[in-house]
Amino acid sequence: MKALILLAKAAIGFVWFVLLVNIFHPFPGVAAMALYIMTAFLFMMHGLQMLIFIGAFGDKIKMSRWEKWSILIFGIFALLDIRRKHMM
């Protein structure tokens, strides 16, 4: 399970890399506009996940700053990793 979470985090990291490259060096044509929309959507969804999770479990689970911010970057895969660490 740990290897799959790591693989999924690497995939999401690659997605963020492509989205950030598009911001600083836009891709040609309509691809840039589509990637801008995807960037905003991904940022909003992961931000919402982070706010909901911290609001619901922030006082029950002791999390480091990195774990909180990793939810914004990796989304559900960070949540699965946090659950795995705190359930053991």
TrEMBL record:
Keywords per UniProt: Membrane, Transmembrane, Transmembrane helix
Domain of life of the native organism: Bacteria
Transmembrane segments: 7-27, 33-57
Name of the protein described by the UniProt record: DUF1145 domain-containing protein
Annotated organism of origin: Photobacterium sanctipauli
